[in-house]
Amino acid sequence: MRTRLFTGVAATAVAALALTACSGGGTAGTTPATTAGSGTSGEQITLTVATFNEFGYTDEMFAEYEADHPGITIDHQRAGQSTEAHENLMTRLAAGGSGIADIQAVDGDWLAELKPLSDQFVDLSSPDVEGRWLDWVEAQATTEDGALMGYATDIGPEATCYRRDLFEAAGLPSDREEVATLLDGDWDHYFEVGRQFKAATPDVGWFDSAGAVMNARVQQLPNPYSSTTGEETIIPLGENTQIKELYDSTLAAAVDDDLSAGLGQWGTDWINAFQSGAFATMQCPSWMLGVIEGNAAGQTNWDVASTFPGGGGNWGGSYLTVPAAGAHTAEAQELAAWLTAPEQQLKAFAEAGTFPSQVEAQESSELAAATNEFFNNAPTGEIFTERAEAVESQPFKGEHYFAMNTIVGEAIGRVDVDGTATAEESWNQAVSDADANIG
Amino acid sequence: MSRSAAGSDLTVRQRLSKLDVATAPYVYIAPFFLLFAVIGLFPMLFTAYVSTREYGLLSGDAGPAGIDNYAFVLTNDRFFIGLRNTFSIFLLSSVPQMVAAIAIAAVLNANLRARTFWRMGVLLPYVVAPVAVSLIFGQIFADQSGVINAVLTSIGLDPIGWHSEVLPSHIAIATMVNFRWTGYNTLIFLAAMQAIPHDVIEAAIVDGASRWRTFWHVTVPMLRPTIMFVVITSTIGGLQIFDEPRLYDSAGLGGNSRQWMTIAMYMYELGWGPQRNLGRASAVAWILFAIVVVFALLNFWLTSRIATSGTPVARSRKKARA
């Protein structure tokens, strides 16, 4: 009997292996978030915190919290990229919240599609956290019923990063205050300085990618792809004159005037271009400093100026949510509040350059004194506080924002990066793509 | 033990043993079929059901859709772009792979020194994770900073748009697929070659056949069942290709013009992309399933034909019969 049972078990195992092997593919190494806590409150519980990329949360921070809260163990699960974390979260929500983390980090851009599912999240509003964040930051995570879906961790106020050596070679001022004055103005002015730069050094791009410029400009529109009168109404791309104008002027500068280095952001060529010095400036949210430092390791010419074309801009920023399906939502909410408190936001900024979304943290002297050695000891705390003040609002991002923005981004890429279509052909393609695939 | 006691004992035992003989085989194979029913058959049938519903990933079932999902997919340009790309990448990977795998297997089948070393060597690329493969080939096939284009421009040739153009991107992806799978298929062919009886080959040599003739007219025809197996499995795998094209750039959507987006990627984008439409994704899944079945059968028929007509023995037999 024993052998037979064993054979049965072995056969089951083999079959399971074979089947899982066949179904391999797709999920790129995200470990499922499990809620390991089993006891009631007062017992030993485990809180899982699921983040992505780099939130700047260190083991020391979690150890500190565990020491202050006996009985709580924190399990920090990090996904490599936000797209993986996004897919993981959506799949788990679709499964009714099974296996979801106690605290789930979300990107600000996901909130539009999560708001209709606000039932699946704990309303985190509480008198303790009132007035804690910048107004537009809090507004982004607040539903129409006034429920607060997440505690903001960081924001991405945009400055301009540049290469001092390339500015000098083109006969432009290279000191960061002078650069801020030189570039102060709208996008046309930024392109105009670019043409001067290009006339002096024709082989170097003025900026890295037309897609990045376009995206930064879209972020400055209040209603890029849809109007919000009453319910969200998509503006058909063919009739979206504001986007068409930005599209035309961006590509005219990037391709006709050759200001773009023609690199697709995040691609291999883009990453390698930081070492070869293929472009002189780029739009630079605070978290981008870490990316540049990684890609341009060994270079000594990068600097950052407190200026951004067309006023303020914000790119990125995240929130911590507490899914209602978790077993310990009260404890999770307490931990999320602690992680987004000023002290921890400042530590995260020092660790990973994630700029605090907290009013109190932004006013702290510690932040004001922060500098970045890689960027020629630039006073990054001071610069990004100034850039954060310049941000007035965020565009309305409805359900179809991401799909529409991707189609426009691809249209720009066909002209700027691939060179396989003219601006007009590519726009027509984008209009028909949007008609066929959105809605 | 008395005889009578043993006799009554035996009847129970005999009954049990009869039952054992009758049911045991089914019990042994049951675990596989139970598991298959749960994680193979059920999802397949459920997918068929979902493909006729308006079914969102997050919003769930929102009523019947009839053939709307199929109609959407079959009138969408991107589906046909995906179809073109899938077949192009499939042909560019499977055909060279078969030829190379048989050739390498023939070489490995010869008396080499350190045989195990060489045999394990061909399997090494298969062990490398697809993510790592795409990182390595990403550096080789980068448009501006890649190794191949650096070599091309240094000898005065134009760089190739490995990402921007259709055919070059397919060739690059097929190269990644071939890198991973050629060794795997080689080992299957090698195992089959070693099962060929020596006396057949010796007889051919005694008859004065050259090495090439022996290989072509004895070895290859005797590999026929294996060739059919490998062709069918690589048809199934090749038409479902996902990992390599998805990891070919950082966005994972198949390029700005969807120049290397495959059917499987299109299905994933419909279900888990901005549309989150599982109904449409399921429709693509079933269309893909139908295509795979048709092409697996077609290849089965083709390979069995080619291998038969290539056998001189079979031909002479036909002549004899005629």
Write out key terms for the chains shown:
heterodimer; A: alpha/beta; D-Maltodextrin-Binding Protein, domain 2; 9-stranded mixed β-sheet; 11 strands; disordered N terminus; B: mainly alpha; MetI-like fold; 2 domains; two-stranded antiparallel ribbon; 14 helices; 75% helix; flat; disordered C terminus
Instruction: Return the domain count of chain B.
Output: 2
Task: Calculate Rg of chain B over CA atoms.
Answer: 26 Å
Helical residues, percent of chain A = 40-55%
* SSE class of chain B: mainly alpha
Largest sheet geometry of chain B: 2 strands, antiparallel
Strand content bin of chain B: under 5%
Shape of chain A: globular
Q: Give a short account of the largest sheet of chain A.
A: 9 strands, mixed
Structure description:
The complex is a heterodimer of chains A (about 450) and B (about 325). Chain A has 19 helices and eleven strands. Chain A is α/β, with parallel strands linked by helices. Chain A folds into two domains: about 170 residues, D-Maltodextrin-Binding Protein, domain 2, CATH 3.40.190.10; about 200 residues, 3-Layer(aba) Sandwich (D-Maltodextrin-Binding Protein, domain 2). In chain A, the strands form two sheets. In chain A, strands 1, 2, 3, 4, 5, 8, 9, 10 and 11 form a nine-stranded mixed β-sheet that branches. The longest helix of chain A is centred in the N-terminal third of the chain and has 21 residues. Chain A starts with a helix and ends with a helix. Chain B is mostly helical and about 325 residues long. Chain B has two domains: about 50 residues, no CATH class; about 250 residues, MetI-like (MetI-like fold), CATH 1.10.3720. Chain B is built from 14 helices and two strands. In chain B, strand 1 and strand 2 form a beta hairpin. Chain B is flat, with a radius of gyration of 26 Å. The N and C termini of chain B lie far apart (about 70 Å). The relative contact order of chain B is 0.12. The C terminus of chain B is likely disordered. Chains A and B meet through helix 1, helix 3, helix 11, helix 18 and helix 19 of A and helix 1 and helix 5 of B.
